[in-house]
Specification:
The protein has 543 residues and is mostly helical. The chain is 37% helix and 7% strand. A hairpin with a 2-residue loop joins strand 5 and strand 6. Helix 9 packs antiparallel against helix 10 and helix 13 packs antiparallel against helix 16.
């Protein structure tokens, strides 16, 4: 599939990226993809589908989407536009907006080409064809969902379009796109196999459970609480969509030896040495071989982790010690974030990570916070998704989970609470189960508290999502749908307590953020798109 040349365009934006080398369709030149010559075998159709899989998502967005939220800071460069987006300093010309738009529509085009041409393949097994069609429809729905979430109204492309159509196409109402996505996911869930039905050689391919889980997430982002409950219950009960469960170890969940475990519903697939990602080269402590630190957790994320007794650190009874801030905390903190005096374990050995300035007995002090240096910009590094089997420059073949069963449980808990149906059974099935798996033991952290009202449980569940899913690229979508981005993305993002006591009690000021609720809840349609297609309207507040 690497040699496949796509011969027409999805939207006008793709003219710049895909036009060079295209020919008239009726010429059918040698070594060029055309409808007239390509669809001669099942293997070639599978190649097109493989390309669609590769266009779903990527590791750069997986990690750097976190820095568009209050969980992390992109302190060097503007990777995936994260620094500009978090600071609120962007406009419709930002490269991330264009790449998001054109990249998603490139994938949609690949799906539509497959769907419109697969019937040309001679003597193809009908069951195989039906499954491949379902996979392409899933990916097309997934890509429309990504676009809809960022931009709202978007062009809805249910078929391949000509260049002329691409230059005049209009944005479909969000409600129409939403209905299309949900219908597609429901229908393909009836065709795709369950996780348990996949042979080992097909692990990582789309399943009926993935379709249901994505459908639940779509409902969640639209605050359709009854539908969230109905959809997640189908996964929790099994109900023909596969059997999922929490993996016993939170830390182990993100290690390569545990890929395709019981919690993994949908993942980005990587292969050691053949298809790898390398973002950890700019995320891990420098003493472990990293190059520099470009993505670092914030103090706000660190502060969100509760104590082992279940209380938040600002609760007077929590026993939190600001001078020993990482003691007796939610075990997921240590599994996710590297802090001062962290015990870094790797391949049977361990080392202490010194980050506070002037504390490292090694004179080179590679991990210490130094303003303007290559070390951490916040006083923290990242541990979650560190691959101890990585090769040069942290190149990793570890899969990255886009949806896991823990998220299904959190979606269910949130929806039940919003419907006023949070009770001890729901709690035990969701929050208690997650905390037990994380390593909590105190009854005060594990027991259902009937004295809490709906608003208090809302805050608790939202914080549980933050702790469980931190550094997995989902926080930005939560604060957007909750409409709390205007609260948490205005003002300073902070780092560890390594600064002057007179300023924010010593917590580093690392990045000044700005979020305008009148316009920032939707991204602007990219400027180049509107220059090429005047029928594309703009979102409110943007020129």
């Amino acid at each position: 599939m690497k040699n496949l040349k796509i011969h027409t365009l999805i939207l006008a934006a793709l003219v710049n990226t895909m036009w060079t080398g295209c020919k008239e369709l009726d010429l059918a030149p040698e070594n060029t993809f055309t409808d007239l010559t390509y669809w001669s075998s099942e293997a070639k159709a599978q190649s097109v589908l493989n390309t669609a899989y590769s266009q779903m998502f990527d590791s750069n967005r997986f990690f750097y989407n976190e820095a568009t939220s209050d969980n992390a800071y992109n302190g060097r460069g503007d990777n995936a536009g994260a620094a500009s987006l978090a600071a609120g300093t962007y406009d419709p010309s930002l490269g991330r907006l264009q790449s998001e738009w054109s990249g998603r529509y490139t994938g949609i085009k690949t799906c539509n080409i497959l769907l419109e041409n697969i019937d040309q393949v001679p003597d193809m097994d009908e069951a195989v064809k039906e499954r491949m069609i379902a996979e392409a429809r899933f990916i097309r729905a997934f890509l429309h969902f990504q676009l809809m979430t960022w931009f709202g109204d978007i062009p809805l492309l249910q078929k391949d379009v000509t260049i002329e159509e691409a230059q005049t196409i209009t944005r479909a109402p969000k409600a129409e796109v939403l209905n299309f996505i949900l219908t597609e996911l429901e229908e393909v869930s009836m065709v795709l196999p369950t996780q348990q039905e996949l042979p080992d050689v097909e692990q990582g391919r789309l399943t009926s459970g993935a379709a249901m889980a994505l459908k639940a997430r779509v409902h969640l982002y639209e605050s359709q609480w009854k539908e969230v409950v109905q959809t997640t219950e189908r996964l929790i009960s099994g109900d023909g969509f596969g059997n999922y469960a929490l993996f016993p170890s939170y830390e182990g969940l993100f290690l390569p030896e545990n890929e395709f475990n019981s919690e993994d519903i949908l993942s980005l697939q990587y292969v050691p040495q053949l298809r790898t990602w390398g973002e950890f080269f700019d995320m891990a402590p420098l003493s472990t071989g990293a190059r520099l630190n470009a993505l670092a957790p914030t103090q706000e994320l660190v502060d969100s982790y509760i104590m082992e007794n279940g209380l938040t650190i600002d609760n007077g009874d929590s026993e939190y010690d600001e001078e020993n801030p990482y003691a007796n905390r939610d075990p997921r903190l240590t599994a996710t974030i590297v802090y001062h005096l962290y015990d870094w374990e790797e391949n049977g050995s361990s080392r202490t990570i010194y980050i506070k300035p002037g504390t490292d007995p090694d004179s080179s002090a590679p991990d210490e916070y130094v303003p303007g240096s290559s070390s951490t910009t916040t006083g923290y590094y990242t541990r979650k998704y560190f691959d101890p089997t990585h090769i040069t420059q942290f190149a990793s073949g570890l899969n990255l989970m886009l949806i896991r069963y823990a998220d299904v449980l959190l979606m269910y808990a949130e929806a039940k609470n919003e419907l006023g149906e949070m009770d001890e059974n729901v709690w035990n099935q969701t929050i208690r189960a997650l905390r037990e798996r994380a390593g909590f033991e105190a009854g005060s952290a594990l027991s259902f508290d009937a004295s809490l009202n709906q608003a208090q449980y809302r805050e608790l569940i939202r914080n549980e999502r933050r702790s469980e899913l931190a550094m997995e690229g989902l926080r930005i979508f939560d604060i957007r749908r909750w409409k709390t981005a205007e609260d948490v993305l205005n003002g300073w993002a902070h780092g560890a307590k390594f600064g002057p006591p007179s300023e924010d009690n010593g917590y580093l000021r690392v990045n000044l953020r700005s979020f305008d609720p009148a316009k920032h809840y939707l991204w602007p349609v990219p400027r180049d798109e509107r220059n090429l297609n005047p029928n594309l309207t703009q979102n409110p507040g943007w020129d």
